[in-house]
Design goal:
Layout: E1 2-3, E2 6-8, E3 11-13, E4 20-25, E5 30-36, H1 40-59, H2 62-78, H3 80-91, H4 95-112, H5 115-118, E6 123-128, E7 131-139, E8 142-146, H6 154-165, E9 169-173, H7 180-192, E10 199-201, H8 206-213, E11 218-224, H9 227-239, E12 243-247, E13 252-256, H10 262-274, E14 284-289, H11 292-307, H12 328-343, E15 347-350, E16 369-372, H13 379-382, E17 389-392, H14 398-407, E18 410-411, E19 413-417, H15 421-430, E20 435-438, E21 454-455, E22 458-459, H16 467-472, E23 474-482
Parallel strand pairs: 1-5, 8-9, 8-11, 9-10, 11-12, 13-14, 13-19, 14-17, 16-17, 19-20
Antiparallel strand pairs: 2-3, 4-5, 6-7, 7-23, 12-22, 15-16, 18-21
Helix pairs in contact: 2-4, 2-7, 3-4, 4-6, 10-11
Length: 499
C-alpha cells in the first residue's frame, strides 16, 4: 500500500497526525494508496517555511519569476503522459480528458509568463507642483488555495501560478481523493526553479482547512467546491481579515431555439452533459428546448447518442467516452437523485440504472441517464447532481427559457444554440449568469480572460485567472513623491492642493 506525503519546504514529508484517508482507484473500487491528513501543527510548519521563503522571492524581479513559469511549462509538456495517467488512476477520467485537465492549467501558466507587463503600476508626472504620483502592485505574502477533486491539475495551477509569479508563497490543500498530481506539480515547480517553501502541498480535511482559515500569516484563500463549503470558507476567512474568493455549485442551462441545428445541439449536449461523467462545474445539466416540436426533434437526435455512449476505465484508451465517478458515495448519491426524479414524475428516457461493466463490478461506474418533462420543483432540477444525468425542461417560449436560467439560484455558466444573432445578443445581454456560450456548450474562458459565475456560484469580488488573478494576489500601493529643488521656508500645515 503506497503511503503518500505532504510537500513542505522543498521535500516530501510523511504525515505525523496519525490520520489518513483512503485513495481509491474508481474503476476497480480498490484502495490504492493512503494520504495523510494534516493537523494544525503540520500546517503551521508549512506556513512558517512559506513565510521564511517569501520575502526573498518577492525581491526577485518579475522577469526572473516569469522564467520559472517558462521552465514549468516545458516540464508540464515533458511529463504530460505521466501526469495524465496519475490523474486518471485516482480520478477516473479518460486519458484525453486528463490531458485536457493539465493543458487548461498549463494555459494559465503561459499567461503568467506575462507577469512583467501585468505587474506594471501607473505613473502621473507633475500631479502637483513638483509632485509625481505612482502606484505599484506588491505581493500579499503567504497565500493558500483549497481545491476540488474534479480538476486536480487545472484548478491548483489556476491558483498557484498567478500567486507565485506575483511574488507570493502558496500553500495548496488539494482534495484528499486524488492528491498525487498536486504533489507532482510541486516537484515540477521546484525543478523549474521555484525556491524551497514557495509552493507547498499540505493534504488534509476540515482540520487543515480551518488551520488555513485561522492562521494570521496567511493573507488570502482561494476555494473551488460546493456552495455550502464555499459559504463557510468565505464567511470564516473574511471574518479573519483575509482576502477570499470562493467558487461554488452550478446548474448550467443550455437553451435550444427552434432554428438551431439539432444535430449540432445534440452533439454539444452529449459532450457537455456526460463528459468526465458529469463531474464538472461547467457541465450542462439542463437542456431547455423552446417548444414541444423543438424538444421532440432534439430528443430524436439526442437519445441514440446517449444510448451509444461508451463507459469504461481509462486503461481502455481513447475508445471510452467517460469513466467512473470518483467514489462509491458519489455513485450512491447520483443513483438516489435519479430515483427521486422518477418518483417526482420526470420521464426517464434513457435509463442507466442497470449499467454493469464486466470485470469492473466493484468500480464506481454510473450509466448515462436522460430525463424529459422535468419541472422546476423537482429535486433533479434544483440540485447539482454532479453525475452523468441530463434533464430536459420544455419551455413554451424564449422568455420562459431565459427565465429558467435567470431564476435558478446558481449562475455559473449557460449557453444558447440558435442561428439568430438578435436572439443570441439579447440572451447574452440579459442573462444573469457569469459565463455565456453562444453555440458553445461549455463556455470556459481562455486563460487571458477571467473565469467566474454569479449568484450562489461565487463568493467574492474577483474571478479566477486572467487579469483578475493579478489583482487578487497583489495589493496596490500609491506613492506621492516630491523632491524639493532647494530649502523651503518653514513647514506646510495644510493639505497641498493644485493651484
Amino acid at each position: 500500500m503506497q503511503e503518500l506525503t505532504h510537500y513542505i519546504d522543498g521535500e516530501h514529508v510523511k504525515g505525523t497526525s496519525g490520520r489518513f484517508a483512503d485513495v481509491y482507484n474508481p474503476a476497480t473500487g480498490e484502495v490504492q494508496a493512503k494520504v495523510p491528513l494534516a493537523n494544525g501543527d503540520e500546517m503551521a510548519r508549512a506556513v512558517a517555511a512559506a513565510a521564511k521563503a517569501q520575502p526573498a522571492w518577492a525581491a526577485v524581479n518579475p522577469q526572473r519569476r516569469a522564467r520559472v513559469m517558462m521552465a514549468f511549462v516545458q516540464l508540464l509538456h515533458r511529463d504530460m503522459d505521466k501526469l495524465a495517467e496519475a490523474l486518471s488512476r485516482e480520478h477516473g477520467k479518460t486519458l484525453p480528458d486528463a490531458k485536457g485537465d493539465v493543458i487548461r492549467g498549463l494555459e494559465v501558466v503561459e499567461y503568467c509568463i506575462g507577469a512583467p507587463h501585468l505587474l506594471k503600476g501607473e505613473f502621473t508626472d507633475s500631479a502637483g507642483p513638483g509632485i509625481d504620483m505612482y502606484s505599484m502592485r506588491q505581493p500579499l505574502g503567504v497565500t493558500a488555495g483549497i481545491t476540488p477533486f474534479n480538476f486536480p491539475a487545472m484548478i491548483p495551477m489556476w491558483m498557484f501560478a498567478p500567486a507565485i509569479v506575483c511574488g507570493n508563497a502558496f500553500i495548496l490543500k488539494p482534495s484528499e481523493r486524488d492528491p498525487s498530481v498536486p504533489l507532482m506539480l510541486a516537484e515540477l515547480m521546484a525543478e523549474a526553479g521555484a525556491p524551497k517553501g514557495i509552493l507547498q502541498v499540505v493534504n488534509g480535511d476540515k482540520e487543515a482547512v480551518d488551520a488555513i482559515l485561522y492562521d494570521d500569516t496567511i493573507q488570502s484563500v482561494g476555494f473551488v467546491g460546493s456552495t455550502p463549503i464555499a459559504e463557510y470558507i468565505y464567511g470564516t476567512g473574511c471574518a479573519q481579515g483575509k482576502r477570499v474568493q470562493c467558487f461554488g455549485g452550478a446548474k448550467n442551462h443550455m437553451i435550444i431555439m427552434p432554428d438551431a441545428d439539432m444535430e449540432q445541439a445534440a452533439d454539444a449536449l452529449v459532450g457537455a452533459g456526460y463528459g468526465a461523467a458529469g463531474e464538472r462545474c461547467m457541465a450542462i445539466s439542463v437542456a431547455v428546448p423552446v417548444g414541444d416540436d423543438t424538444a421532440d426533434r432534439l430528443l430524436e437526435k439526442l437519445v441514440p447518442k446517449v444510448e451509444a455512449l461508451k463507459v469504461g476505465p481509462y486503461t481502455s484508451g481513447n475508445d471510452v467516452d467517460y469513466g467512473p465517478v470518483v467514489t462509491a458515495a458519489a455513485k450512491a448519491n447520483i443513483e438516489r437523485l435519479v430515483q427521486t426524479g422518477i418518483d417526482q414524475g420526470a420521464k426517464l428516457v434513457v435509463d442507466g440504472r442497470n449499467f454493469n461493466l464486466q470485470g469492473y463490478e466493484d468500480g464506481f461506474f454510473v450509466g448515462a441517464h436522460l430525463f424529459d418533462n422535468v419541472t422546476k420543483d423537482m429535486d433533479i432540477y434544483k440540485t447539482e447532481i454532479f453525475g452523468p444525468v441530463l434533464s430536459t425542461v420544455r419551455a413554451k417560449t424564449y422568455e420562459e427559457a431565459l427565465g429558467l436560467a435567470m431564476d435558478h439560484e446558481y449562475g455559473n455558466g449557460t449557453a444558447i444554440f440558435t442561428r439568430d444573432g438578435d436572439t443570441a445578443r439579447d440572451f447574452a445581454a440579459r442573462v444573469n449568469v457569469g459565463m455565456v456560450g453562444i453555440n458553445v456548450p461549455i463556455p470556459v474562458p481562455l486563460a487571458y480572460h477571467t473565469f467566474g459565475g454569479w449568484k450562489k456560484s461565487v463568493f467574492g469580488d474577483l474571478n479566477q485567472h486572467g487579469p483578475d488573478a493579478f489583482k487578487f494576489y497583489t495589493r496596490t500601493k500609491t506613492i506621492t513623491s516630491r523632491w524639493p529643488s532647494g530649502i523651503k521656508e518653514g513647514g506646510e500645515f495644510s493639505i497641498p492642493v493644485m493651484e
